Amino acid sequence: MVRHSVASILGICLSIYCFGWLTLFLIGEVALGYLLLLFCDARRVHVYTLMLTMGYLTLFHIERFLYPAKDQMDLTVPLMMLTQKISRLAFEFHDGNVQADKDLSPFQRRLAIWSLPSPLSYLSYTLSFLGLLAGPVCSYNDYQIFIQGEEKSGNPLVAVSRKLSLCCLLLVAHLVLSDRFSLSHDPDRSLISHYTDLYLMAVSRRPKYYFAWTLADAVNNAAGFGYNGISDDGTERWDLLSNLNIFKIETASSFKSFIDNWNIQTAVWLKEVCYDRSPFNPLLSTFMLSAFWHGVHPGYYLTFLTAVPITLAARRVRRTIRPMFQGSTLSRAVYAIATWLCTQIAMSYTVTPFLILELGQSMRVYRSLGFSFHILPVLVILVLPTTQSSHRDVKSSSMSVCDQNFNQIKKET
């Protein structure tokens, strides 16, 4: 109880320091979420909670869109974290109180909440100072294990030192690169030059995300939260809360690999509340929920709509083209280099509206590129055949880093 109280009080004090009286909106959303758990039917509470939290968040996104205040801290960021925490807890409560045990996956069974959380533990989970401002978001059960000290944890000193050292490098990279590259509007530039601009602009914007997520991870690790067992080589894993894998992002040779290692905890939330449960087109539903969660700027929706055909085309290529290049080391290397290049170009193309935000300017960029990565994926889908293994592959492709973490924990125990 003491640790829950301290985490809650420090979180509220931190919020008051950063946002002043606007902290009441954070506390208000937490109160509404708990009231839904108390009074709503457990069979529908997860749906009502997701609708409430997304609607609540959207009101602030609209206010921020209409009245941008660059000289103030953005309340929508902690609200985005709260949206994930409150809705995720409701889904896990639904799994523990409604779903039959045989209908739950091992991952869902481990995270299921079997009884109503106390008001204090709910407040501590949602408003803890450790993840209030920038995350990372974790499951309620993982947070309870940490707070109650129920499992043996390793020594975070090495992990924290490495992550803080990396933060210093990332901060320098952000300061040096963030404003160095931009899009050229010269109509005489070649298509290759335009794509080079896109790639350099995208890469130069990544360090600020890398820095924020790595620092947030290090803060939690320093508190003893984030231990994830022992790796195959005998070293301690402190990646339970990690939000990215920089090396895998920069060397990704598939669209899926890039997405799987970027904003990992948000991807886990999307998988848990949408992808695994959506009755209609899980891929499109998940991308649209992600856009809705990010905000109301048109660029978000254009980015995630663009990602749908590219993702489908990438799956088709992997199933039909990849086996042709597995005969020798040279052919595998050629395939890896080619797919890395295509992945980085496709991702840079996809996220351009996300960075620009404005619909008109985003469409001008796409028009200058001939909508090439809108047309090419559609052609790939039409030309390449479907395979009999598509259902199995799609299920496999939905495995998140959180699933992998569960597998690691299961192996340790």
TrEMBL record:
Topological category with respect to the lipid bilayer: Multi-pass membrane protein
Compartment(s): Endoplasmic reticulum membrane
Gene Ontology annotations of biological process type: lipid modification
InterPro entries linked to this entry: LPLAT_7/PORCN-like, MBOAT_fam
Entry's transmembrane regions: 6-38, 45-62, 291-312, 333-357, 369-387
Pfam families to which the protein is assigned, alphabetical: MBOAT
Keyword set, alphabetical order: Acyltransferase, Endoplasmic reticulum, Membrane, Transferase, Transmembrane, Transmembrane helix
Coiled-coil region: none
MF GO annotations: acyltransferase activity
Source organism superkingdom: Eukaryota
Protein's name in the database: Membrane bound O-acyltransferase domain containing 1
Organism: Hymenochirus boettgeri (Congo dwarf clawed frog)
